[in-house]
Each structure stands twice: as C-alpha cells, then as structure tokens.
Design brief:
single chain; little secondary structure; 1 helix; Histone
Length: 60
Amino acid sequence: MAPKRKAAKRKAAPKRKAAPKRKAAPKRKAAPKRKAAPKRKAAPKRKAAPKRKAAKRKRQ
C-alpha cells in the first residue's frame, strides 16, 4: 500500500465582518381586545332513529 500523503491544511478563509444590525422598527400598540361573544349552548343531539329492519326484509 502506497504511503498516504498528508492532506495539506487549508488556510482558513478570512472571516467577513458582520453586517450592521438594523434597528428594530417601533412596535405598534396592540389593538384593544374585543370581549369574547357568549358561547351558545350546544343543541341536544337527536337520537338516531331505529333502523327499520323488518321493512327491509319484506322488500327482498
């Protein structure tokens, strides 16, 4: 096996100077929050009508 050549160390690239930070834009005052509308009570669920099995059987 041929002797491996030591990888040449690459010179570090010159670091770029950080771009100047922009000043934060003045924050807008939050709009006054509206009072939540009163929640409506859920309507009572209707019970499923019993399936008419006898009628089906007659039809066959």
